[in-house]
Amino acid sequence: MGDPRGFMTVGRIDAGYRPKEERIFDYGEVEQTLNEKDRKLQASRCMDCGIPFCHWGCPVGSKIPEWQDAVYKGNKAEAYYILHSTNSFPEITGRICPAPCEKSCVLAIHDEAVTIRENECATVEQAFEAGIVVANPPKSRTGKKVAVIGSGPAGLSAADLLNRAGHTVTVFEKNDAIGGLLRYGIPDFKLNKRVIDRRLALFVDEGIEFKTNVNVGVDITKKELLKDYDAVVLAMGAEQPRDLEVEGRDLDGVHYAMDFLTQQNKVVSGQTIPENVRILAEDKNVLVIGGGDTGSDCVGTSVRQKAKSVTQIEILPKPPEKRVDNNPWPYWPNTLRTSSSHQEGCTRRWSLNTKRFIGENGVLKQAEIVQVEWTSENGRWVMNEVEGTTEIIDVDLALLSMGFTQPVHNGLLDSLGVEYDPRGNVKVDDKKQTSVDRIFAAGDIEKGASLVVHAIQAGKVVAENVDAYLRNGK
Fold it and tell me: What pLDDT sits at residue 473?
């Protein structure tokens, strides 16, 4: 390493966020950046630890010590090439990844992990500014054609690597723009969509063809798909949201979180949403049901829409501030996470279950919630209501952010005739091939809803297997 003792002389410094009083009035990215000198100093903290647990913790196997060293030494091209060698979208994971690499960093033992995620984002941005990142189309083509269905992180990762291998790749997307979850599920204040467009422009120059507003299974049949392409990769994600089947679910004002976020992302991009279907938090008491990242995004979006109040509830108990004894380093810490959106104004509550929604003339007005406690019975966690803790709270907009259960079966998947596993995901073998010959699957569609970085890795794995299949017939 360039400075194996850097971690002893330089403390961790996070770039932090733009001032709250400024950022809540726009959808610009909230994270700030350090200057180049300070970024090099942060990279110098990556020590010669012998066993890089960060590499073990990273789903895409990023060679973190190597590119940190290059950043410290000012070798921008080398840093980018090493980083990009394992990840098609380091500029995206550098913005939205929860950084399991940092949680497994040796310095995390003392809560002083290297700022890997921020260094990653800075490395890519510096490479773009320096003109290092340019289109690099394959020098020859194999003559094989691959269709990728779905343009989220798994589909784009697979498309990139299959194209690099020389296959002719076409990506089909049912929506009006490429990006899937990245485009319409993540707010611009976390991921500016120009970041996606910049990478897509490179993909086009490298030979990938994109087709939007195409509903495969309707506009293109299974027979046509298998006739025109040598292999098909299914990467449509797990889009079936978990519902809340309680009294009042059908009231006007109860919506899925993703519908709310998608609308706002479209508005930010310049599209117009008809007033009769627009979901707005302005001047409303907002209840976000679900404590994950999507719920946090709903909080930040509601604040920017000038909600009257925002409350986020979670059915599970409040996580501890610090690791507990049975959750040691270097494993992922099951601790309380506070996002920039939470800091902008939100009441957070835990161990609460929603019993019913209460309305007036078909419009949501209140919600009935109750405290719950969790006990272990025969190795299973069981939830019970706490007697006497029921309360009624004023709610004008309820956003269901409780995750996703499985891919949508109706339509393409059922028409293809693929098998499902017991959880309702597309069943694949160890080569990521489905029960239908020449059809593969990657990402949330076969693993279940997970992180963007896991989807990128799934795209890498399926691309390797599709490439081997096309070249060797297996």
Answer: 72
**Percent of the chain with pLDDT strictly greater than 90:** 96
With b meaning 16 or more CB within 10 Å and e meaning fewer, what string describes 72-107?
Answer: bbeebebbbebbbebbbbbbbbbbbbebbbbbbbbb
Q: Would you give the DSSP letter of residue 350?
A: E
- Report whether 310 contacts 397 (CB < 8 A): no
Spatial separation of the C-alpha atoms in residues 314 and 383, rounded to whole Å? 13
Distance of CA 240 to the CA centre of its chain: 16
Q: What is the spatial distance between Cα 460 and Cα 189, in angstroms, rounded to a whole number?
A: 28
CB 265 within 8 A of CB 288: no
Question: Count of CB atoms within 10 A of residue 6's CB?
Answer: 21
Q: Positive or negative CA dihedral for 50, 51, 54, 58?
A: positive
pLDDT-above-70 percentage for the chain = 99
Q: Check: CB of residue 261 under 8 Å from CB of residue 297.
A: yes
pLDDT digits (tens, 9 = 90+) for 340-380: 999 999 999 999 999 999 999 999 999 999 999 999 888 89
- The pLDDT-based confidence of 2 (bands split at 50, 70, 90) is low
Q: Is 325 exposed, middle or buried (0-12, 13-18, 19+ CB in 10 A)?
A: exposed
Structure tokens at 74: 């000012």
The pTM for the full model equals 0.96
Q: Is 363 exposed, middle or buried (0-12, 13-18, 19+ CB in 10 A)?
A: exposed
